[in-house]
Amino acid sequence: MKKVLIIDDEDKLRSLLAKIIGLEGFDVFQADDCKTGLKKLEQNNIDVVICDVKLPDGSGVDLSKKIKEIYPCIEIIMLTAYGTITDSVQAIKNGAFDYITKGDDNNKIIPLLYKAAEKIALTKKIAHLEKQLGNKYSFDIIIGKSKNIKEAIEAAQKVATTDASVLLTGETGTGKEVFAQAIHNASKRSKNNIIAVNCSAFSKELLENEMFGHKAGAFTGAIKESKGIFEEANNGTVFLDEIGEMPLDLQAKLLRVLETKEFIKVGDTKPVKVDVRIIAATNKNLQQQVNEGNFREDLFYRINVFTIPLPALRERKSDIPALANHFLEVFKQKTNTRIESISHDFMEHLLNHEWNGNIRELKNVIERAVILAKDDQLVIEGLPVELQIMKDNSKTLSAFDLASVEKLHIQRVLIYTKGNKTEAAKLLNIGLTTLYRKIEEYHIISS
């Protein structure tokens, strides 16, 4: 039920409006002056205020401005007498929703209230979505309590509030884009765009066009002018992923943007002014790239203002259980399955794996296991073949180990044949019946 506050010193009119509005199902509160009105706002979660322009202890126009400053989501409808239209217009400029003429427009108040209620609902929905988006890209979603990931988060939080260029280093799959998004979201540029480009995904010509855009007629097919990511991200952030792959001549153009805050579109001669923050990421050793002549030293020092190394997953194995359970929750919701937990053996195999693909690899492994799960728990049969046999050099070769090796080999052959058991049996040089028996004996899941 929406709550409405009527602020008016005319008792009869106020009571009449309260009765009309109350009959429509609104919860109505009343006040006869500014002071009482503000007190009612403090005590109740008001949605709409209906306020007279002239009150005993102040101006309703001034009060409307104060209310919007304190409670920006509240909508205000002004009550105006003849000759005070100017005041009502000013109130609308101050943030009021609309105004009606006292006594003459009582039939308009209910439609206005419903319109105001719709706007409030939309405003709250947008605020909720913005909060969700903010949470999605905040530091709070970075999972892990190991020392090295906490150090990386703390460093990122400190630099986020500045305008300094940031260089994120680390292996592929360690979460560099997540960190870039979180840094932008915690910065003063958060209300503007963050636009990412993977420097290894384009040829030199396409990357230049992607970064700086082009003028109409710059090349065949360039029918109209196009903005690049620097122009689209003006007053925001540009995230240059895999910057170590950027060609040298483009590095020179990027350096110009950083030094002069301007660039020239492909096929144009006129510079375009921009104000962007640079967050770059690489899985390469840029200092070594500089030494080998593959990366400009001056650009390196420009983007290397604040470096944050992100640890590989094998360097923070204590975080694997939390990450695995997080991905389990994500994918069981996506697939609408009722998986309750991860088995001890499954987790033990996760902790024993080297994770050369880092968090991205772990995410894929959990997604696969959720899809293959038959019961309410993730078990080792849902793991990829390379994870199903733990590396343990302390064990001597036993019958179990030999069975495990055979199981692993059969699984690899089935993957190679894309689940074709007849072809797999031929490659294994065993009968098809024998293959089916071993699949059942070893609980092999084949596509």
CATH topology of the largest domain: Rossmann fold
What's the level 1 CATH class of the largest domain?
A: Alpha Beta
Number of helices: 19
The side-by-side strand order for the widest beta sheet comes to: 2-1-3-6-7
Provide the domain count.
Answer: 3
Instruction: Report how far the terminal alpha carbons are from each other.
Output: 54 Å
Biggest sheet statistics: 5 strands, parallel
Fraction of residues in H or I helices: 40-55%
The class by helix and strand makeup works out as alpha/beta
Judging from the principal axes of the Cα atoms, what is the shape? Answer: extended
Q: Overall pLDDT, averaged?
A: 87
Beta percentage is 5-15%
Supply the CATH architecture of the largest domain. 3-Layer(aba) Sandwich
Number of DSSP strand runs: 18
Uncertain regions: pLDDT < 50 for 5+ in a row? 392-399
Radius of gyration: 32 Å
CATH homologous superfamily (4th level) name of the largest domain: P-loop containing nucleotide triphosphate hydrolases
